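Why predict the complex rather than its parts? Because the way molecules touch one another can change local conformation, and only a joint prediction can capture that. The input here totals 554 residues.
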Amino acid sequence: MNRDELHEKLTRVFREVFGQPMLVIHDDMSAADVRNWDSLNHVTMIYAAEKKFGIKFSTREVQNLKNVGELVSLIDQKIP
Amino acid sequence: MLFNSSAFLMFLLVSVPLYCLLPLSRRKLALLALSYIFYGIWSVPYLLLLAAVTGVAYVSGLWIGSARTEGHRKRALGTSLALLLSVLILFKYAGVLGALAQLAGVEADAFTRLLVPLGISYYTFKLISYVMDVYWDKIPCERDPAAFALYPAFFPQILSGPIQRPADFLPQIHQPAPNDPGLITSGLRLMLFGYFKKVVVADSLGPFVDQVYADPSGTNSLCVLLACYAYVFQLYADFSGFTDIAIGTGRLFGIRSPKNFSMPFYAPNLQEFWRRWHMTLTRWLADYVFTPLRMTFRSWGSLGIVLAITVNFAAIGLWHGATLPFLAFGLLHAVYMCVSVFTLPARNAFFDRRPGWARARIVWAPLITFQLWTLSEIFFRADSLDQAGRVLGALLDLDAAKPWVFGYGKEAFLWSVFLILVMEAVHWVQSKGRWEFIWSRKWAAPRWAVYYAMTFAVLHQCAGAARQFIYFKF
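Output of the joint prediction:
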């Protein structure tokens, strides 16, 4: 799966979790840029991404994510 | 040494000029010495306790940093957390432990006589954040023992925060900035406003609140309602005043500290409220309690969210003290938060479809949030669940014949209301970065008039007995 396909699939996760059907994600995007993306919903999004891509994140990895680009890179490393 | 004591002001009057004269290379040790003197004046044995737990966290950081396997890292983290939390629980909850031991028939006088070390919650939370951040590879382990020892001991923050993170604090120690007159001036300005909030606003509301809480059943219900609101502002002025003094004092020594409050009473919902109230504690709990719990329960659906929220807010309640009213305060917020989290998406969608209503929501959403906060503060202020129940009962007892009470008197009470408005006006000016720039650089005459007025008000109020900061006991 290339990075564009990852972006597309992750966009669907973001739209569903944060309830914004028109949301478009980009690498520099962080929690401050997305309505409803707070510490309460962060893990909900992470879990939805885990299910979507069939992978698992550790708490350390989740704690160190700074933006969407880092999340995409991490998923890219983990998918078989 | 209380922040609102003449001894503290003398301490600053001597130490700040000397510190500013020191070469940058000597400042780290000087600040550590000042911090240990500040704490040691209160208690030398507890200064040794602070040094001991600092040593535990320092060695743990090195251990985690040098561990070759994940198993070793986990063992180092587990040992460190067990030691730090044991010390915190032993001293902070000694009274409860002693009572439990006596219930079990064990003699435990030593427990009940233990004093709670000042600031133990704050410096322990700082040390926990350090070992967790090293374990999560957020920061490298700190090898300089003096710089590390200064992190938990930094005297402006040790008593009641703010809880600054090591990644934010330690670089300021390793690369000390030269004397910055602008930073020192802004620190002095913040300290003056902090003293104004504590000594003038909070302490003038205190007697009124105390009088109503002493006999809520015998007081007019409208007066009880006013006392509930007054306590919200008393606590806010007291704690945010303390924080301003702490942050301002830090600036005198060239250290920038994080914000702890950001206009909480204008928050449109409770999630936002907690992002603006005691911000450094909320973020600490979000990172080190809530998120790990959410990760553990993430496959449990809504139940996982409810569990993580409940544990998090019960911890907030019990952090203030192991009493039933504090637990009730925490659990009430857990209920608030669960309801808010699960209904917010639907509420947002509803108002997105109705722009007219959404505009009105800007006004009434903060008002509702404020009422919910005020209700929870009844439990926070009460000494027992029985007292909280009596206050709630008095609010519903509409017997108009019951008397009003006013603390220092009716005029003094109205004066307090005016002071709250002044406080909120200054908060508003502070929140507008551009306005604060204009206020601090341009308007010299009105600015100095306000400085003199605030100083006079503080000195005038100081003639009475000084009240302790509410958050000292936490």
